[in-house]
Amino acid sequence: LKPTDPIVQELLRRAKTVVERAYCPYSGFAVGAAVLAASEATGEREIFAGCNVENASYSLTICAERSAVAQAISAGHRTLLAVVVYTPTATPTAPCGACRQVLFEFGADALVFSFGATGRYSRRVVSDLLPSSFGPSDLG
Ligand code: THU
Description:
Blueprint: H1 6-18, E1 32-38, E2 45-51, H2 64-74, E3 79-86, H3 97-107, E4 111-115, E5 121-125, H4 126-129
Parallel strand pairs: 3-4
Antiparallel strand pairs: 1-2, 1-3, 4-5
Tetrahydrodeoxyuridine (THU) binds next to α2.
């Protein structure tokens, strides 16, 4: 997958829409994420989007990535194929450590594109973002 591929552009469009709904009064740092999920039964693909949701009790903040993953899982999906993270900043934003762990659970092979507002991007595989990982297979 390349950043110019239609599916990545659609994920980016969804991430740019949802970033407008970010609840980030404390940091002022808005993040939008969109995940491409695949149905295990039919292989059908569906996109889910999420924004960061902050809280007056700061540490309860939910990142955009985990917000999007929760939507996909709640809709019945268990497999993630690709993720787009969008921030209206010059520098693209990589998923935080906690989000890497959550993405790994459902998409170790998923591609993560991070886009900044000026088109700068990074492209990484989840398992590369989380080396020496602990995941479902480690529980035997
Ligand atoms: N944030 C995300 O939503 N995703 C990331 O990948 C990095 C950080 C949010 C959490 C918090 O609301 C704000 O960005 C500043 O850390």
